[in-house]
Amino acid sequence: MGSRRVKVRSQSGKILVGDCIAELKKLPTASVDLVFADPPYNLQLAGDLMRPNNTKVDGVDDQWDKFDDFAAYDSFCRAWLTEVRRVLKPDGAIWVIGSYHNIFRLGAAIQDLGFWIQNDVIWRKVNPMPNFRGKRFTNAHETMIWAGRDRKSRVTFNYESLKASNDDLQMRSDWLFPICSGPERLKDDGGRKAHPTQKPEALLHRILIASTKPGDTVLDPFFGTGTTGAVAKRLGRKFIGIERDLDYATAADERIAKVQPLETEAIETLPSKRSEPRIPFGQILELGIIKPGRKLFGPRREVRAEVRADGTLFYDGQQASIHRLGAIVQGKAACNGWTYWHFEAEGKLKPIDDLRSEAKRQLGLGSRISI
Amino acid sequence: MGSRRVKVRSQSGKILVGDCIAELKKLPTASVDLVFADPPYNLQLAGDLMRPNNTKVDGVDDQWDKFDDFAAYDSFCRAWLTEVRRVLKPDGAIWVIGSYHNIFRLGAAIQDLGFWIQNDVIWRKVNPMPNFRGKRFTNAHETMIWAGRDRKSRVTFNYESLKASNDDLQMRSDWLFPICSGPERLKDDGGRKAHPTQKPEALLHRILIASTKPGDTVLDPFFGTGTTGAVAKRLGRKFIGIERDLDYATAADERIAKVQPLETEAIETLPSKRSEPRIPFGQILELGIIKPGRKLFGPRREVRAEVRADGTLFYDGQQASIHRLGAIVQGKAACNGWTYWHFEAEGKLKPIDDLRSEAKRQLGLGSRISI
DNA sequence: GCCGTTGCTGAATCTGTGA
DNA sequence: ATCACAGATTCAGCAACGG
Q1: What is the pLDDT of residues B147-195, one digit of tens each?
Q2: How wide is the angle at C-alpha A244 spanned by C-alphas A242 and A245, nearest 5°?
Q3: pLDDT (tens digit, 9 = 90+) per residue, B41-94?
Q4: Alpha-carbon gap, residue B317 to B170, rounded angstroms
Q5: Phi, psi at residue A260, to the nearest 5°?
Q6: Is B243 helix (H, G, I), strand (E, B) or coil?
Q7: Which residues from chain B sit within 8 angstroms of residue A329, using beta carbons?
Q8: pTM above the 0.85 mark?
Q9: Does the distance separating the beta carbons of A134 and B310 come in below 8 Å?
Q10: C-alpha distance from residue A163 to each of A210, A251, B134, B276, B290 (Å)
Q11: Cβ-based contacts of B157 with chain A (< 8 Å)
């Protein structure tokens, strides 16, 4: 019952040829950082479906009613999703992609199994297939669900990189990409498309940049012709692909072998501010960057507080941290004292946050921090 | 246990004040052409969410959105969907709207109960609320499901009207509309929003134009402040609204009374706007038009920066967006990275702005895009 | 009246760390 | 497990106001 063949072409990843659920069961628990899954959409493929007990579901029978079809599909999805959840690390996450035929069943299963949805994301297709019969709207999008393993999972999200790459605006939940065509589309020997639903590499590029770190392991249980593996290799992520069809797996293997990984430096993502070393206000004082007795002001000089030697601020009979006192004088529940309080230099007010860069310099904490 | 009050203001429709399921049970079988349902989303919000300026987001904390668990939400939805299906005519259809919190459960229930999905349609919001903590993608869309009562239902679809209103291109499944704000947004006596989730009339306009005929009866089991009724009256459709909250129902009644129905001949389509999405730098990268590791130069080669895989630029220990880094190296407050940074081709420097035309070609933005 | 500035708000599952 | 608290975080549209 083992996989018929295991291919290992490079250290970047491996392709397991075999049944999705059977292969998943062999993978160790809590070993994977991210899963990308592009499961079968069409219920006509019910003959390919497996029950949770790993027996094969009989092919579509006209006497089955719709509920039976949906139930079989649901069982199959809950089975592989359960295994996927097992192999994910506690802070791991999953992406699934689908259309209206299957995405609602996938989404409900994801919620029922305890995953915690972060976003649903819409892939808007530039060049979708038109609706030939004029009976519906042009089906111009697919839906992706991004979910953490648990409600508590602290999933990877490279917010800063996405924002910087989007002209300094937050990345939205609707993404515009062309479908996979042209030279990127894999062809078989007869010049026909090698796989019916090959996904564009641009889509996986954004997904992996958004939700993985270099060196992470990405698992794709429906590997097909290996788009996930190709992009993972290029971006310095490890991959595990599971594919039942040997022809697809072979095509994927050859495709990925041709991929040239990017240089280490080219795949660096922007660090979040939180990942930088913390400089408490007291340290600014200890380093002598600011002196006790110095006056600090609100943004429009509406208050004038005094720095105390213990690293607190004093104003109007109240003594507290820069954050607490900022909250108190504004009558708010919370406050970032670094941006609220200002010091005077050459007649102008500057936020005390500016002093932290000087502290970092003195502490030898340059701006180049690589993990 | 009847409705507390039935309001009839005109021949165009009526508002039933009472419990959704109880009122549905009183309606005759096979009497309605279209249902539009905007049910509670079951948002499951935990604590307060603060904006960066430490003010509180006015979230949906109403009792009507609270359910014990998914099972309670599911049984509620299956109950009203069952009644809705009963009152629909054989060729009738339903639209439901939701977010990732509830739409997968709604979609699965719709399929299980025997409805037949025609499309899922994405409402892309021009002006969504940002993600204040920088932990997810901006939640910039909601999902609608359009389904016929049965697989066999021959549902109304005004294909020609939609195509004509879309510059003679088929209407796509992704629609761009602003959220409901400004004068359209109903206010209570205190000047606060009368309803937390009022939908824009433009959305209902397109739905009713797409999937009803003049004189059809439209039922909205979660009427709220009556957007469905207002648009139905304007477009010469009859409406039945069910609303449990008397304040909402009263506001809806007064709102609809002010609506002037259009002349019979005018009940056709409105012209659509075109939208030309921005092309951010990251997308140039994702599309493979420029590769990570590529060198970019200032206009006179005074700096040489490197493209990173995450869509940022790197120079002299600094990594930032094309705009931010351009500003930094010039010592300016701001910079248009598209015109500052250049790539080398055939020994000559060209601004990276030139690459956007290729991206636009790939993204089909030379042609017309559905709104 | 026009223009720039300031402030408010919208269906939101929105932190991380150390004690 | 809970609790305290440091401190990081926003886009587009509209309204009100002042010059």
Answers
A1: 999 999 999 999 988 887 776 789 999 999 999 999 999 999 888 999 9
A2: 120
A3: 999 998 899 999 999 999 999 999 999 999 999 999 999 999 999 999 999 999
A4: 49
A5: -95, 120
A6: strand
A7: none
A8: yes
A9: no
A10: 10, 35, 9, 20, 18
A11: 135-136
